Amino acid sequence: MYLNKAYIIGNLTRDPELKALPSGTKVVSFSLATNRVYRDKEGARQEAVDYHNIVAFARLGELAAQYLKKGSQALVEGRIQTRSWDAPDGSKRYRTEIVADNIQFGSRGGSGSAGSGAGAPASGKAAEAPKEDAAPAASAPGETIEYPQEDINPDDIPF
User: Fold this and answer.
1) 6: helix, coil or strand?
2) Average model confidence (pLDDT) for the chain?
3) Which domains does the chain have, with CATH numbers?
4) Which residue, among 4, 13, 35, has the nearest Cα to 99 in the 3D structure?
């Protein structure tokens, strides 16, 4: 049995680029930065950053382009793939990327409010855009909380 699965949690280094293939299928590409902390031979703390190319297709790609921005945090689940092509100068070029199967949006970077968009899943199976009127209203202690009347889709639960 073989396994090709990647889980990456990081911050977007640029805004997602949405394009369409000749077949009409939407494709989005963006890059995530991850960091790791380690100690060198002298015991000094070092930090290294890795950059990961991500691509997502169809509705998942459209949702990523709509809700993710530079600095946003995201968890990407997918498979690793390497593409090759011939460059105009005659050399062979390679690009390793993660083809996303599922994306969970994290906290927004920059001026976004804390917690906005946190944990909003976007899976290729049944992803829907969050509805603004579905959020429960803030209530004082002792008041009842009004919950949305929509049914919960088990595919939208992140665990």
Assistant:
1) strand
2) 80
3) 6-133 (2.40.50.140)
4) 4
